[in-house]
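Justification of resources, computational component.

The compute hours requested in this renewal are based largely on the per-chain cost of generating structure records like the one below. Each record pairs the submitted sequence with a full structure-token output. That output is archived, and it is also reused by downstream analysis tasks.
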Amino acid sequence: MINSLYVVTTPIGNLEDITFRAIRILKDVSLIAAEDTRVTRKLLTKYSINTKLISFNEHNKHIRIPKLLKEIKLGDIAIVSDAGTPGINDPAAELVMEFRKSGIGVFTIPGPSAVTAALSISGIVADAFIHLGFLPRKKSVRQKVLKEFSHSKYPVVIFESPHRILGLLEDINVILGDRKIIICRELTKKFEETLFLNAGEALSLITKPKGEYTLVVDASKDENKGLENNTSQNLEQVFNQLNEYADKGAKIKDFVNEIAETTGVSKNQIYSLWLEVLKSR
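The structure output for this chain reads:
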């Protein structure tokens, strides 16, 4: 019988937020690979789970992957993170890939998600959204990432620690503007708190950050205005302009801002039209 790897989602805060199936799997497997064994031990103790634990994290993954590939021959293995789903903002994806390459079955045991939990109480339409996880620590790199999504027509979800939340809010206010933002702190825990405000207000309200944060940043207002200007007449005008630039061998990055400003058509729509122009040649 071929053994399997189970990717088990654990609570994001409240230990009661775990499925019956997850508890059964954690009891039945021969080994649990945990991001931090101390954190996982608290969960296992609450549900009287005595399965053997081994650490698996960013610092020891290169040593652990070969070991776990051997251990799977002895029985099923479960992998868990400190909170939520393994493989999202942690190194579990590398383990999953190596197991798949070896022909080992990998199965998901779904559960709580800070991303969907925050979106569900945000009041923001989230038929589609962008999840950026934890942004880079370095300020200049973090600002560059925010600039890339400054005109997104979708809400953006970001994770942040208490040590860097103020720096992130400063960058959001400067780069994204005074946009609607939902700040969730300590989701599902005893001191859970959710703030609904504009980015500019957040810096004055959060003076002593504590706990883990999940932010939902609303879609770009500029992008929404741009959509109003995507009339057939405007789009035809832009299409003709793009054809002229293509004839000259120009690159879109050299003129996209100018066209967006003069026509009111969104940059995303301009990029889409540019692809159509190139395909037609």
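The longest strand covers residues 180-185. The chain has three domains: 4-112, 115-219, 224-279.
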